[in-house]
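Notes from hallway chat w/ T.B., transcribed later so I don't forget. T.B. wanted the structure written out for a chain they're using in a teaching module, and asked if we could keep both sequence and structure tokens in one place. Agreed to drop them here.
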Amino acid sequence: MAVSACKRLDLLMRAYAARVRLGFAAAPLAIAALGLLGLALTGCAAQQNPQVYRDNIRLENSNAQLRSQVQRQNTQIHDLQKQLAAKTPRMATLPPSRLAELFTLDHIAVGSATRLARFAPGHGMGFRVFVKTRMADGEPLPVGGSVVIQAFDLKAATGHRLLGHWKFGPTRVLASWYGMFGLNQFAFDCPFKALPTHHAITFYVTFTDALTGHIFTAQRAIRLSSLKPQ
């Protein structure tokens, strides 16, 4: 008997939906009626397959718990970020109105000229990593700051993918500007102890602008044309 009633409700709902599409029913009343019919059919589904109904209820409860957990974690992260910002000393810099009158750094990029290199006698070999520092219009801008470079071989076995980690302070950064051949970018020599075993190397660069304190990052996969330093 219950199944037969559910079938009748389903047919009624389909017929009423057709009337709504054809414009024979007022929109607000139609929506309310369709909603009530939908609730009735939900009850029918529970009668026909109680296990599916119980599973749906459990999933809804689990989703609600997960949403609540994510919200709590986001609140905790926000609070920790506020605490960290309060403890981090502010870098003395010019006000925004003054910075707007100056040429300032907008973005950085890893240069395509990055390669394996043999350094000056006694300095071994390694990566020569080129870093472009650009204004908003794309023009090069030699700026002071500090740089951190990391090189990864993503095809290597887990635990051996980081090939090197190099830091350059403000003095070395200023001395690393490379204007030859119209490159107009920084060139950092990053020595290593052993040659990489794969041609594809991913470089990740972090540049902290000495003027503004802003931190810029760039990542690029470079395919080395040769595994022999040039």
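Follow-up for T.B.: The chain has two domains: 2-86, 100-223. Might be a good example for the class.
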